[in-house]
Design goal:
By secondary structure, the protein is an alpha/beta fold. The protein is built from four helices and five strands. It is globular and about 30 Å long.
Length: 107
Amino acid sequence: MKILLDECFTKRLKNHLMEFEVSTVRELGLSGTKNGKLMTFCVENNFDILLTIDKNLMFQQNLEKYPVTIVVLNSFTSKIEELISFLPSLKSQVTILQKHKAYIIDK
């Protein structure tokens, strides 16, 4: 499973997702990229999931257009300690997530 971490995440989150192939927007030189272009990048580069805390993204894009899954961690902060607390829930659901859809993950 290939996951792209939106720029709202610290790269340290990758260390807690070792069972996946994870890249960050920043390390790919995509900082500041608009969401539509980011979604297109995900499709063109075979990412399965765009992981974010941006709750608006799922309403701003036509999800039918992009065969990728948007996963929103329902966090009010981007602090690593907070984000880690969502990962057990994410990992337990990751195999049932569908492309062209958005999901909000709670703790």
